[in-house]
Amino acid sequence: MLPLLLASQIREADAHTVAHEPIASIDLMERASKAFVGWFVNHFPDKNKNIAIYCGTGNNGGDGVAIARMLYDHGYEALSVKIARFSSRSTDEFDKNLARLKRLDVPLTEMENGDDLPEESNGIVIDALLGTGLNKPLEGEYEKLVKYLNSVKCTMVAVDIPTGFFADGEIDPDATILKADLVITFQQPKINFLLPESGPYIGCLEVVHIGLDEKFIRSLNSPYQLVEEKDIRAKLKHRKRFTNKGTYGHALIIAGQPETMGAALLSSSACAYAGAGLTTACIPENGLIALNNHQPEVMAIVRKEKELPDVDWPKFSTIAIGPGLGKDAASLKLFTRVLASFDRPVVIDADAINMLASNPDLWKHVPKGSILTPHVKEFDRLFGEHKSWWQRLQTGKQQAKNYDVYIVLKNDYTITITPVEKFYFNSTSNAAMASGGMGDVLTGIIAALLAQKYSSEDACIIGNYIHGKAGDELALPNRMYAVLPGRLITQLPVTMVKLMA
Ligand SMILES: NC(=O)C1=CN([C@@H]2O[C@H](COP(=O)(O)OP(=O)(O)OC[C@H]3O[C@@H](n4cnc5c(N)ncnc54)[C@H](OP(=O)(O)O)[C@@H]3O)[C@@H](O)[C@H]2O)[C@@H](O)CC1
Ligand SMILES: Nc1ncnc2c1ncn2[C@@H]1O[C@H](COP(=O)(O)OP(=O)(O)O)[C@@H](O)[C@H]1O
Ligand SMILES: [K+]
C-alpha cells in the first residue's frame, strides 16, 4: 500500500528527510526540480516552444526558479520567468535559486501588486505559484492571475499541485483554482487528486519520486492508503490440488425483476467467473429461461410474485442482494427476511441500499462485517446530501464504524471505508468502464470472494482491484472506447491468474 499523506504530513516528511538523510533543504528542492525536469524534457522535446514559468516566492516558486535554470541548461531557448511578488515574504530556498537564475540569460519579470499581467498567447505555462503551502483560498492578485491564466490558450503544467487546489480537506466548488492540463507531483498523489472534484483542475497526473524517507512516511500510519498491485498479489490465494467446488463456497445472488434481469445475469455470472464454487441466483420466475440460456452454470431459486421463496439460508456461504431488485413490498419483505435469517457478512447493493435508506430500522439487522457498495447517489440517499467528497469520506468513516460495516464508495478511484477508520483507494479502472451494469459485476465479484473465505476487507480491496484491472487490460492496450460489463466478466479469470503468476 502507498500511504497517502495530508499536506501537513508531507511537510513533516520533507523536514524529516532533510534532518535524517541528511540533505540540505535546497538540495531536496534541487532533487524535486530535477525529477520534474526529467519527466518534462522527455515529453516536451520542442526546445523552441515558448515556456513561461510563473513562480511564487515560497518553495513551490523555488522549484519553479530551479526548473527554469535546469531547462536553460537543457537548451530550451524560449524561456521566460515571471515572479509573483505579491507578498514581502520569501523562503531562503527561493532566494538562493533566484540568485542562481539571475546569473543566466533568462528573461525575468517581477510582478507586484497592481501591476498589469504579462501576456501569454501560446506555448507552455509552468505553474509554480503555490503548492502544498496553500493555507487559504486564492484572493486578490493571486486570484486575478490564476483567472487570467485559466483564460489563455496555453498548455498548463503544474509543479506538484495546481495553484489554489488544497491537497486535502474540502474543495469549494466556487474557488479559483488553476486548471492544469498536466500535474507533475512529488513523491505521491495528494489525497484530493483521487476525488472527483479534481477532475476540472487535473487533466493528467504524473508522480515523480524525490526520495522522501519511506520508513518515516509509513510510521505516520496514515488512514488513507492507495492499493498497489503488489498488495493484491500478496492477498490472492491459489487454487490448490485436491480442492473441489465445495472448497470455494456457495454464493446466493438475490437480484433482478422481469425488466432488470440483466442485472441478475451480470452479477451472478461475475460471481461464477470470479471463482465461487457454486453460484445460485434468486430471480423472478420469468427470468429462468434467460438465466439457463445465459449462464447454465448458475443455479436458480425462483421468486413467484409476492411470495417469499423457500430458501435454506445456512447452506450459503454468503449472499449478495440488490442489483435490479426493485423496491416493491415483495423485495422489501425478502430483504428483511435475508437480514433476519443470515448472520454472516452479506453484500448490499443498488436497490437493497435504497431500501435500507428508506427503512433505517433495518440497519440493526445488517450482519457485522457486511459490505455496502453505493455509488455517490446511493451513498447520499443512505446518509444524506453532501456538498463535497471530503465530507462523504468523513461520514463514511463514522457510519462504517457505527454499523461495523465496509462501505465501498464507487467512483474513478473507488474507496473502501472500513469500520476501523481506514480508507483504501483503488488504483485500477478507467472511464471506458462507465457503462450500466458495471456495478452489478463488482457486486458479483465481491460475493465470490466472500464465498471463497476472503475477509470482508480483502474482498473489497481485491474485488475493486480485479474489477478495474480487467477493465484496464481490455480498454487500455486495445484503446477501447467502452468496455461492456459482459466482456469484462470473461476477462476476470485471466486477470486473476495473471496477478497470481
Ligand atoms: N523542502 C521542502 O519543503 C520541499 C518543498 N517542495 C515544494 O515546496 C512546496 C511547498 O512550499 P511552501 O511550504 O513554501 O509553500 P508554497 O505552496 O510555496 O506557498 C508559499 C506561501 O504562500 C502563502 N500562501 C498560502 N496560501 C496563499 C494564498 N491563498 N494566497 C496567497 N498566499 C498564500 C503562504 O505564506 P503566508 O500567507 O503564510 O505568508 C505560504 O507559505 C511544495 O508544493 C513543493 O513544490 C519541494 O521542493 C520538495 C522539497
Ligand atoms: N469513469 C470511471 N472510471 C473508473 N471506473 C468507473 C468509471 N465509471 C464507472 N466505473 C466503475 O464502474 C462501476 C459502476 O458502478 P455503478 O454506478 O453502481 O453501475 P451500475 O449501477 O450501472 O451497475 C464502479 O465500480 C465504478 O468504479
Ligand atoms: K503549483
UniProtKB/TrEMBL annotation:
One biological process term in Gene Ontology: metabolite repair
Binding site for (6S)-NADPHX: 59-63, 131-137, 142, 160, 263, 324, 375, 440
Keywords: ATP-binding, Isomerase, Lyase, Metal-binding, Multifunctional enzyme, NAD, NADP, Nucleotide-binding, Potassium
Domain YjeF N-terminal: 10-218
Protein residues bound to AMP: 410-414, 439
Reaction it catalyzes: (6S)-NADHX + ADP = AMP + phosphate + NADH + H(+); (6S)-NADPHX + ADP = AMP + phosphate + NADPH + H(+); (6R)-NADPHX = (6S)-NADPHX; (6R)-NADHX = (6S)-NADHX
Positions contributing to K(+) binding: 60, 127, 163
UniProt xrefs under NCBIfam families: yjeF_cterm, yjeF_nterm
Function noted in UniProt: Catalyzes the epimerization of the S- and R-forms of NAD(P)HX, a damaged form of NAD(P)H that is a result of enzymatic or heat-dependent hydration. This is a prerequisite for the S-specific NAD(P)H-hydrate dehydratase to allow the repair of both epimers of NAD(P)HX.
HAMAP family, per the entry: NADHX_dehydratase, NADHX_epimerase
Family under the similarity heading: Belongs to the NnrD/CARKD family. Belongs to the NnrE/AIBP family.
Name the record gives this protein: Bifunctional NAD(P)H-hydrate repair enzyme
